[in-house]
Amino acid sequence: MSESLNSEIDESLVETLLRPLPTQRRLFTYVMNVVSFGLSVLAFFPLLSILWEIMKRGLSGLKAEMFFQPLIENGFANAILGTILMVGIGAMLSIPVGIMTGIFLAEFGRTNQITNLVRFINSILTGVPSIVVGMFAYGVVVLATKQFSSLAGGFALSVIMLPVIVLTTEEALKLISIQQRLASAALGGTRFQTTFRIVLTAAIPGITTGISLAIARAAGETAPLIFTALFSQNWSDGLLSPTASLPVLIFNLYNSPDPEINQLVWTTSIILLSLSLFFSLVSRLLSSKSRLK
């Protein structure tokens, strides 16, 4: 009796699942898909217009020698080098701390009060305006060293990158199935070995995606570098001297009445846009590989 009842329930469930949607529901779905597509296209037009304007004004002034000359010689090589240097300093400071903090939050301290405090601070850092970060770095590094420098700029960028890396590392580790942890424990692996040899290895694509996103965000920041690295029209004298960067170059010169300098600003915008686009594409590529795995 119970078997026949179960079979009837299964047949009715299958019939319900295979039954086509009502006409009104399908019509509503089609309409909402059209509306979503239309709004996406509408939002794409302003972005496309900005990109077109940058390319139209900047490509005409792009010359090969600009990549080897500083601003004082009508180039932007010093700004490119300064941007890479400060982003590199920020990455070296934030990546180890961010990954270790994410591991602690995901694996070793999920429920204690310290974890909740760290998550709260990380959430605050995520929403802090970049200009506030610049003022903080100014008070911590610039006032201590008595000078603007690329080191101070890298420190400011590390503060911006840190919460992104912590958040993505924690979420990437949480996505690793519990079965892998149990299998490692069954083979005699300690918690430390399981975390760093199994879980962390499996989460590397997701962690790398977060790092790429953090670098892409930091590369386009202007306000923190105004307060910390200032600017230089020539090559930097070292880590403890004012250093040029692409965002600050655009900020300082975009109102210049000189047509040649104005052209240089638009060309610099292409380079900065290309750097941000490159890191964004890298993050998308890594995330797609992570999903395939």
TrEMBL record:
Give the bilayer topology: Multi-pass membrane protein
Q: Which UniProt keywords apply?
A: Cell membrane, Membrane, Phosphate transport, Transmembrane, Transmembrane helix, Transport
Q: Please list which residues make up the signal peptide.
A: none
Q: Which CDD domains match?
A: TM_PBP2
| Annotated transmembrane regions | 27-55, 75-108, 120-145, 151-173, 194-215, 264-286
PROSITE patterns given for it? ABC_TM1
Q: What is its main location?
A: membrane
| Domain ABC transmembrane type-1, residue spans | 80-283
**Where is this gene product found?**
Cell membrane
Q: Which PANTHER family match?
A: PHOSPHATE TRANSPORT SYSTEM PERMEASE PROTEIN PSTA
Q: What does the sequence similarity comment in the record state about its family?
A: Belongs to the binding-protein-dependent transport system permease family. CysTW subfamily.
Q: What is this protein called?
A: Phosphate transport system permease protein PstA
